Amino acid sequence: QVQLVESGGGLVQAGGSLRLSCAASGSVIRIDAMGWYRRAPGKQRELVASITSTGTTNYADSVKGRFTISRDNAKNTMYLQMNSLKPEDTGVFYCNAKIVSAALYNYWGQGTQVTVSS
Q1: Is residue 48 classed as helix, strand or coil in its secondary structure?
Q2: Sign of CA dihedral 65, 56, 88, 3
Q3: Cα separation of 26 and 42, whole Å?
Q4: Cβ–Cβ < 8 Å for 59, 69
């Protein structure tokens, strides 16, 4: 059994910062690509940032220069440092990971709410 658990969401004023964490636990053999997705109110879930097992990153244009994705492979944990937050960053953030356990599966966390007030 593999689980992804996010933490670090909350309420912050515009211009503030938050750091999200996503920890994988259970029978993890290897974690390949990981990513953060956001579902804004009334919109579909969209990719915010992704990172490969070797550290190559990719960002949505809307967060470039403000968000930084990273991972600690020894801890099976991924992070999203969010700076200069804007009200339009508000949404539920989900972590996603392709994890090799008994086989390769695509896992999702339960989501963490980020609310940015103006």
Answers
A1: strand
A2: negative
A3: 33
A4: yes
